[in-house]
């Protein structure tokens, strides 16, 4: 009787590689463009993507939001649209496809989101991740695009130049008075303090500067999981 040879067990099927989606997100109606490029797992939900957008753009998650995709709306519960708790993998997204994202529907910050590519995850990289971006995020509750543009233009207003002139004159006077032993008057100090306060306010109007390092630190700390829920 022939000897039975024991068949080798079949190796288990390798687990499917994690699919990654790369998006470019930008604010509409603002020039120069304010934009970010991110990579997220395809298993992520639209609600989680909302949280990621909040982190990478620099928003604070204090207002309602909605996505518009193929005439379907996915939004905060208060807006009576479809739930955003749907995985991106189920939305049949194609490379090059664009869809809308709105935040703070009163101020109407409208973003466009474009799927640039899809590929397998890099085993040495954590996700989500911000790859690139440019432009400062507008301050919350500044009146939407018109309000932000007006505030940003205030940095080039004549009043700003006058405040810088006050500071430059103070530095000159300080050097002169120190060489002669004269003292600085309280009125001069008050003028400088007031000029600095006005410049600080105008600087805040320019928005939050973008830092990829800071953004990715916040993503690694999973802050997007908090910001995907409205912060009251």
Defining key terms:
232 residues; alpha+beta; seven-stranded antiparallel β-sheet; 6 helices
Verbal overview:
Helix content is 34%, strand content 21%. The protein has six helices and seven strands; from the N terminus they run E-E-H-E-E-E-E-E-H-H-H-H-H. The protein has helices at residues 46-57, 144-153, 158-180, 186-205, 212-220, 224-227; strands spanning 19-27, 35-41, 65-69, 72-75, 98-103, 109-120, 129-134. The chain has a seven-stranded antiparallel β-sheet. It starts with 18 loop residues before the first strand and ends in a 5-residue tail after the last helix. The model has no long low-confidence stretch (mean pLDDT 84).
Report a brief summary of the structure.
The protein is an alpha+beta fold and 232 residues long.
Kindly state the percentage of residues in helix. 25-40%
Strand content: 15-25%
Low-confidence stretches: none
Succession of helices and strands: EEHEEEEEHHHHH
Shape descriptor reads elongated
Largest sheet: 7 strands, antiparallel
- Radius of gyration over alpha carbons? 26 Å
Structural class: alpha+beta
Distance between the termini: 80 Å
- Biggest sheet, strands in spatial order? 4-3-5-6-1-2-7
- Number of helical segments? 6
Chain-averaged pLDDT: 84
Number of strands: 7
Write the layout of secondary structure elements.
Layout: E1 19-27, E2 35-41, H1 46-57, E3 65-69, E4 72-75, E5 98-103, E6 109-120, E7 129-134, H2 144-153, H3 158-180, H4 186-205, H5 212-220, H6 224-227
Antiparallel strand pairs: 1-2, 1-6, 2-7, 3-4, 3-5, 5-6
Helix pairs in contact: 3-4
